[in-house]
Design a protein that fits this description.
The chain is of the alpha/beta class. Helix content is 31%, strand content 31%. The protein starts with 6 loop residues before the first helix and ends in a 6-residue tail after the last strand.
Length: 277
Amino acid sequence: MNGKITKNQRLSDLLRHTMFVIFTGPDPEAMRKEWFTHWFDSPYYHLLYQHHNDDEARLLIDNLFKRLSPVPYATILDLACGRGRHALYMSRAGYDVTGLDISTSSIAYARQFEHEHLTFYQHDMRHLFRTNYFDYVFNFFTSFGYFKTEKEHLQTLRNIQLALKPGGYFVLDFLNSAKVIARLVPEASVDQGAVHFQIKRFVRDGYIIKQIDVRDGDQTLAFEEQVRAFQLTDFQHMFDQVGLELESVFGSHQLEAFEPNQSDRLILFVRKPSSST
């Protein structure tokens, strides 16, 4: 024996200390009534947000890794991974990455990039995936706050807490709702080639709403986004309830200081206590 630990040995040791959870998928009838299930599966979603590109993903991840210094082959969960641009970049940097997303079409697209250190699954974050498995859980691009009830948001955070190994980190990249609401643009038009988007924005019942009408030739479609206008104190309260500890707060993808009325983002570094199970 030369004292070196192979990847198979690491995997064997991990399996002995990890509980895998068998879960059932979300109720199909309920999912059909939720805005994100059909909007995220629509090609128009990706067309509207195509300006969020690989360079943007690399910038944020590089800054996060400089701050967090993950060890080689650290286990990472990209929660709400979309088509996998963040997950792919992290796997190429030398980490074992799992991507989860509720969108069937996004996961089907992302699976073309799978390799030994990168896997994708269609999954609803309200359901538990694995326990005590991940060193890091990342949630990028305001992919939280979509649900109707506080119970669902808390359950999602509990699942994240359970998914992390003791001492692991959850990083949440969320909009700065105070600035968004203060500077809300009520209407806008966007043209992407022959496709026209007419967008209306407003706040209702604690949610930032975006109504999106799409005109593509003779076809007209209507979509909606709803994001709970969580602020820092809301997250602190929820973290306390699920056993997570807020460590750092940043206001941009460059990890600049958070300014409540000026910052574009609310980026939270949250840790699962080392004594947790």
